[in-house]
Amino acid sequence: MFSIMENNGPAPGTGPLDPDNAVPQDSTSQQDTAAPCGTTAYDPAAALADVDSARRAVADRLITPWWYHPALGAILAAILLVGALDLHDLIRLPVALVGAVGIGLLVAAYQRITGLWVDMRNLGPVSRRWWLAYAVVVVVVTVSSLAPTLTDRALPVWAALALAAIALVATIVLGRRVDEALRTEIRSGAAALPRRR
């Protein structure tokens, strides 16, 4: 399972992270016993400690900025609100375009700050359940906000505002739950490590 490596790196868990898998590239925690070809054997206990250290380091880097979920929720709420109020396309299209650009900027900022990106392949069982709960809420409010498009009748203002508020609150609350669960799962090994960007 572990390969034989040269003994020339920094202390366990302090080495640079490999950009493809976020695991330390080398470690001085290897045994000094001679192995064929002049290399040393990699101590399995030290290897496990290095993996644990790498998982903790990655989980610590996945702290979403405090403004990320409120900004994402506000963008989603604005898009849903103009749809639910059945506003003219001259308003809906620019709001949707600005929203798409805003989401792209949020994603880029997150990747720049953390150096990582998480997708469905990285979620563990608990974080996946929280993400699915969020997805259900978003689908329900999105379909509800599209009703005016199908019926040519705007929703009452209170209903449109309620849909926007639900989207905003769900994005903030459930988004943070996904993040917390994912960090816990990465530390425990229940979730896959995200790749560097």
Can you describe this structure?
By secondary structure, this protein is mainly α. The protein has helices spanning 44-61, 68-84, 89-114, 125-151, 157-188; strands at 116-117, 195-196. The chain has a two-stranded antiparallel sheet. Helix 2 (68-84) runs antiparallel to helix 3. Mean pLDDT is 82; it is low at 1-20 and 23-34.
What's the SSE pattern? HHHEHHE
Please give the alpha-carbon distance between the first and last residues: 27 Å
Largest sheet: 2 strands, antiparallel
Provide the helix percentage: 55-70%
Secondary-structure class: mainly alpha
Strand content: under 5%
Tell me, what's the shape?
elongated
Model regions low in confidence, pLDDT < 50 over at least 5 residues: 1-20, 23-34
**What's the tally of helices?**
5
The strand line-up of the biggest sheet is 1-2
**Extended strand count:** 2
Radius of gyration: 23 Å
Averaged pLDDT: 82
Key terms:
197 residues, disordered N terminus
Entry summary:
With about 200 residues, this protein is an all-alpha fold. Helix content is about 60%, strand content about 0%.
Topology:
Blueprint: H1 44-61, H2 68-84, H3 89-114, E1 116-117, H4 125-151, H5 157-188, E2 195-196
Antiparallel strand pairs: 1-2
